C-alpha cells in the first residue's frame, strides 16, 4: 500500500461512526478541482503500512471504522489484503472510490461496510471533467454493482459551476436513478490540482438546495454538503 496521509480521528467522513482515514497515493484521474494534489501526483511523504496497522491495533474498542480514501485506493495492488487485516481487527471499513475499477470493487464488495463513489459527470462529459482516459462502461458497471450489492453506500458529485450545469447534474441523477443516497458537494477552491481552479465557483446555497430537491425525483435521498 502506498499511503500518503493519515487522519487519526473523524466524525464526518464515515456517517454516524467514529473513524480514522487512510489516504492512498496515486490516481487514474486528474480532476482539476481535486483538493489532494500531493496524493494524486504521489509526492506526499509515504507512511509505512505497519504504522497504520499498529495504530489500529491500539485503538480497538475506541474507533469504530476506517475510511480508505485517496488518491484512488482501487489502484493499490494490496488493497484487498489491507482491508482484510483491518476487518480482522473488528473495524468497519468504508471505501472512497472513483468507480473506474469495478473488478476491484467486485472483489471487495462483501468485505466493505460502506462505499462512497464519486460520479464526476454525465457519461459523455467524463473525460472532459477528469482530464484522463475514462472507460464509462466501467463507471456504469460500478454504479450497478454498488447499488445491487453494497451493504451501504452513497454517490456524490463535487459541483464546480463552470464544469457542470444544472442539466448535467440532473443527467447524473438519471444515471444513478433509484440510488439510496446522493450528495452534492460544495466545491472549495482553497487548494486544487489545477491552480487556475482556485478562481472557479460553486453554486449558491439556494441553488444547491433547489437542485437537491429536483434530484429527489431520481434518488431516495439527496443532500448538500
UniProtKB/TrEMBL annotation:
Keywords annotated in UniProt: 4Fe-4S, Iron, Iron-sulfur, Metal-binding, S-adenosyl-L-methionine
InterPro entries associated with the record: Aldolase_TIM (IPR013785), NrdG2 (IPR012840), Organic_radical-activating (IPR034457), rSAM (IPR007197), rSAM_sf (IPR058240)
Every Radical SAM core domain range: 13-225
GO MF term set: 4 iron, 4 sulfur cluster binding; catalytic activity; metal ion binding
Highest taxon above the source species: Bacteria
Cited Pfam families: Radical_SAM
This protein's record includes keyword 4Fe-4S: yes
Signal in keyword set: no
Needed cofactors: [4Fe-4S] cluster
NCBIfam families documented for this protein: NrdG2 (TIGR02495)
Entry protein name: Anaerobic ribonucleoside-triphosphate reductase activating protein
Amino acid at each position: 500500500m502506498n499511503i500518503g496521509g493519515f487522519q487519526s480521528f473523524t466524525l464526518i467522513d464515515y456517517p454516524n461512526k467514529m473513524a480514522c482515514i487512510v489516504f492512498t497515493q496515486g490516481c487514474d484521474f486528474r480532476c482539476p478541482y481535486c483538493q489532494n494534489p500531493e496524493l494524486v501526483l504521489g509526492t506526499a511523504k509515504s507512511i509505512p503500512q505497519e504504522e497504520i496497522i499498529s495504530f489500529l491495533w491500539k485503538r480497538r474498542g475506541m474507533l469504530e471504522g476506517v475510511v480508505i480514501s485517496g488518491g484512488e485506493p482501487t489502484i493499490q495492488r494490496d488493497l484487498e489484503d489491507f482491508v482484510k487485516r483491518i476487518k480482522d481487527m473488528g473495524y468497519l471499513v468504508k471505501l472512497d472510490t472513483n468507480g473506474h475499477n469495478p473488478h476491484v470493487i467486485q472483489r471487495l464488495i462483501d468485505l466493505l461496510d460502506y462505499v462512497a463513489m464519486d460520479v464526476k459527470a454525465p457519461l459523455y462529459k467524463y473525460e472532459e471533467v477528469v482530464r484522463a482516459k475514462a472507460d464509462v462502461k466501467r463507471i456504469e458497471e460500478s454504479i450497478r454493482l454498488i447499488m445491487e450489492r453494497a451493504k451501504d453506500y452513497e454517490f456524490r458529485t463535487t459541483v464546480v459551476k463552470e464544469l457542470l450545469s444544472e442539466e448535467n447534474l440532473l443527467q447524473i441523477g438519471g444515471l444513478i436513478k433509484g440510488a439510496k443516497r446522493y450528495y452534492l458537494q460544495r466545491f472549495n477552491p482553497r487548494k486544487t490540482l489545477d491552480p487556475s481552479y482556485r478562481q472557479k465557483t460553486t453554486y449558491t446555497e439556494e441553488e444547491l438546495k433547489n437542485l437537491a430537491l429536483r434530484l429527489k425525483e431520481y434518488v431516495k435521498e439527496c443532500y448538500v454538503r
